[in-house]
Amino acid sequence: MAASRTALALLLFAPLAFFAAFFLAPMAVVAISSVTTDGDTLTFAHYARILLDEYHWDVLWVTFRIALMTTLICMLVGFPLAWYLVRIVRWRTWRRICVILVIVPLFTSNIVRSFGWMVLLGRTGLVNQALMTLGLTERPIRFLGTETGILIGLVYILVPFVVLAVGNALATIDNSYEEASADLGVGPARTFWFVTLPLCLPGAVSGAIIVFALAVSAYVTPALLSGGQITVFSMLIFQQYSSVFDFHYGAALSITLLVLTLVLVGIAGRIGDAGRRAA
Amino acid sequence: MIARLLIRIVALAALAYLVLPLVVITGTSLTQTSYLAFPPDGLTLKWFGVLLDDPSYVSAFVTSTLLALAATAVSVVLAVPASLALARYAFAGRALVSSLFLSPLVLPYVVLGAALLQFGSAIGMARSFEALLVGHVVIVMPFVLRSVLPLLTPEQRALEEASMDLGANPVTTFFLVVLPQIRGGIVSGGLLAFISSWINVELSIFNTTATLNTIPVKMFNYVQYTIDPTIAAVSAITIVAAALVIILLDLLMGLDMLSERHRS
Amino acid sequence: MQPLLSLEAVSKHFAGHQALRDVELGVSAGEFVALLGPSGCGKTTLLRCIAGFLIPESGRIRIEGEDITAAPPYRRPLNTVFQSYALFPHMSVADNVAYGPRRAGASRREAQGRAREALALVGLGEMGARLPRALSGGQQQRVALARAIVNRPKLLLLDEPLSALDLKLRRRMQIELKHIQEKLGIAFIFVTHDQEEAMAMADRIVVMHAGRIEQVGAPADIYRAPATRFVAEFVGEPNLIPATPAGPGRARLAFAGLELAVPEGTSCAMVRPEDVVLVEGAAAPDLATATGVVEDVVAIGSVTTVFVRCGDLVLKVARLGMSGADLEPGATVAVGLRPAGLHFIAG
Fold first, then answer.
1. How far apart are CA B7 and CA B9, in angstroms?
2. Which of A144, B123, C22, C162 is in the most buried spot, having the most CB atoms within 10 Å?
3. Is the pLDDT of residue A278 over 70?
4. What is the pLDDT averaged over residues A209-219?
5. What is the band of B256 on the pLDDT scale with cuts at 50, 70, 90?
């Protein structure tokens, strides 16, 4: 037993030391500075400021609204795409190409992808050109600097997560369940509603919560597509650290975002676990 | 049947939506005009030439590449023993250690970036290559861990026991039996780690300076003031690189993850 | 003479349950010992303690007198054939077999030469260049054996090595394995839950139950004279006839009103189904007989078992071939057994 304890300690020493020094310690510094002043006295004033300032409530509300809409649209777009890839495509090569097309954006910087939409959504961008050519609008629509613009960009960045999560859930469903349902005289629509959907729901829900968490903490996309017109939560944090230099207040904002995210991810994990147990 | 058709239409539209920006950026990087035009107005590679002549781009490119390489190497060196410990030993706090190592996957990078800047200032490491490196190691190590861990199965454990039974000590066993079995996971996890480091903005932005800059951060700062085809050219390079890496990954381990596993 | 392997009061716990309790055992050089027991009895745990993959909490393990209780697996003069074979999938068959000699310091050429010999011994001389996954299950099993004997250990541990093979192949491998063992003179410790396999191969059988050794003995002794009710039921089919005390040193059996002299503490008498007969006409004088009613007849070809109810007791009567297969349930028959052939079990 002693020998295996030593081996375990040898294996874990370096990674644990690294994470303690460069992950836990920095986080602890932030946590401590969020409840102290420059004079090192304990205070909850920074959190009180977040709670009491109406501007922050507006920012929080905008952030949540955008995240919620992003999640909703991601599901509406991602679910059919996942279904198509898993259940409709029969030609393996095409599915392989499609999967690559879904993943390439994930491997491309947020900045590149957001930049693409800055170009596409501009006054003379391809989207407005197309809309005007089709006669859907007479004057160019303003996208940049609006929530619609941010939504288009965020959905674009996050929809691959939904496709992969739902697709994986769909791909692992044993088709004998659906055959059993059909065998019992249930039509395709009702089979989908009562059998397939419940079976892939845990995967879909945990995918949705991940998307929501990422959308709440997104920085690059809103920063670029808002054109300075709209502020979301992570921008507040960045401002405190880069231009206001109020590290204590920035720390309180950081901890708030962190806790929010961890709670969401915790819920997603619970749902995922429950789904695995049920499956 | 109508539902099927509808799904087909939505799915193809979604695919088009996913591809459109990438095509547009790559296209505009080839334009001859000094403003962004799509479809490109004439074809030229001159914007790529502009990049190569700009030392700040070259140095950012070098920084990004070195950073990604170093972060990947360090994370592999840390993740392999960590995954062995997690897969091979039952110990108190195992779940806690595992969630500690995996938590950067879901952490807001802005928060970690801010934390590293603040912590770095306290110990005199802020805005340096080292500060960037440690942050990147923290966020990319989970990718390596996650692709190595599933390979350390009970069957793999039996191979290690067989090796020791035949007289090989733990170190020999690691190099002759364990490493060959987890090489695939290290390569694919390492590629993911490299890419994630290479494209990161949120974490890096806190610790970069005008002279110590990565490509994505440089682009981010640039795009907020100016938009011209050089940015499209940089973007096009990263898109093509990402596509190549994914095709490589696909050939290496098959990304056909969405084919059904229980169909007869 | 000093035994090759000796286990002294070996105990091992796993999270709240005792996997081994004070196991004592000696194994001589060249002996074939089977560890027999149901799953969870501790036989695999004991094997893993001997191999060095587990370290017991208390007790000593010695090989030729040397204490190896805490020695790592790679410093023990023994080898193992794993249940899953554990062939290295990234190495050719020859490299798998040469792995042991290489680690023991042999040159590449020497190791390859010894690997060829070992493969020839198991009848796979031509397969050296292939990868393990290109071989059938039976061939993989032989490679695992060749890999484990190539270093000529004094002791070979085999963890249910034949369990993945189909019945016919398993029978053939049992005979072959026994021949190889005799030829090499290596002591084998063979873990199995299949009592027929243990009886067919072993010089001595160690029956384990709930982390303890229930009985150690030659196959015939274990079969004829099981020490406990568990052994009687696990090895072969027993007829257990309840015995109630009837005066000092005597008991009354629940069959034909028999009253016999028995050892102290006897709770039942055992007779194997093949020692019970159906009596037609006059019974031999040394037979105790009773009448009963046929409940069931199970004929599997080589053996027919007739279940006969005599009062509360149902006796199994085994007959060779299909004789008796035509008996109808409900028929009245006379059954007989030799009181002198009864084996008494305590507790």
1. 5
2. C162
3. no
4. 86
5. low
pTM: 0.82
Instruction: Say which amino acid occupies A195.
Output: V
Q: Per-residue pLDDT tens for C25-68?
A: 999 999 999 999 998 899 999 999 999 999 999 999 999 999 99
Interface test with A, best of B76, B110, B256 (most A CBs within 10 A): B110
Are the Cβ atoms of C104 and B167 closer than 8 angstroms? yes
The contact set of B with C (CB < 8 A) is 155, 158-159, 161-169, 172, 176-177, 180-181
In order, the DSSP letters of C82-140 are -TT----TTS-HHHHHHHHHHHTT--HHHHHHHHHHHHHHTT-TT-TTS-GGGS-HHHH
CB B118 to CB A251 under 8 A?
A: yes
HSE (side-chain half, CA atoms, 13 Å) at C295? 12
Both tokens of C71, joined, read: 């020695």
Task: Tell me how far CA of residue B245 lies from CA of B15, B188, B248, in angstroms.
Answer: 20, 10, 5
Q: Contact C43/C214 with Cβ under 8 angstroms?
A: no
Domain locations in chain B? Answer: 16-52+228-254, 54-223
- The residue assigned the tokens 């099981």 is C226
Which domains, ranges and CATH numbers included, belong to chain A?
54-278 (1.10.3720.10)
More confident residue, C342 or A140: C342
Q: How many CA atoms lie within 13 A of C235 on its CB side?
A: 34
Strand order of the β-sheet with C58-63 is C17-27, C5-14, C58-63, C66-67
Closest alpha carbon to C34 in C215, C207, C182: C207
Q: Do A105 and B22 touch (CB under 8 A)?
A: yes
Task: Kindly report the nearest CA distance between residue B179 and chain C, in angstroms.
Answer: 11
Cis ω for the linkage preceding A202 (within 30 of 0): no
For B54-223, CATH number out of 3.30.40.10, 3.30.420.40, 3.40.50.300, 1.10.3720.10 equals: 1.10.3720.10
Helices (H), B89-153: 94-102, 109-123, 129-148
Question: Which carries the bigger pLDDT value, residue A180 or residue C231?
Answer: C231
Question: Which residues, 6 or more positions from C343, have their beta carbon under 8 angstroms from its beta carbon?
Answer: C224, C225, C226, C269, C270, C271
Q: Which of C49, A12, A10 is nearest to B171 (CA)?
A: A10
Nearest Cα residue to C230 out of C267, C201, C204: C267
Q: How far apart are CA C217 and CA A92, in angstroms?
A: 62
**Best CA proximity match to C239, nearest among C338, C114, C328:** C338
| Domains defined for chain C, CATH in brackets | 5-233 (3.40.50.300), 237-346 (2.40.50.100)
Residue with tokens 């969630």: B99
CA B222 to CA B213: how far, in whole Å? Answer: 12
Residue among A120, A172, A242 whose CB faces B21 most closely: A120
Chain A residue numbers touching C55 (CB-CB < 8 A)? 1, 3
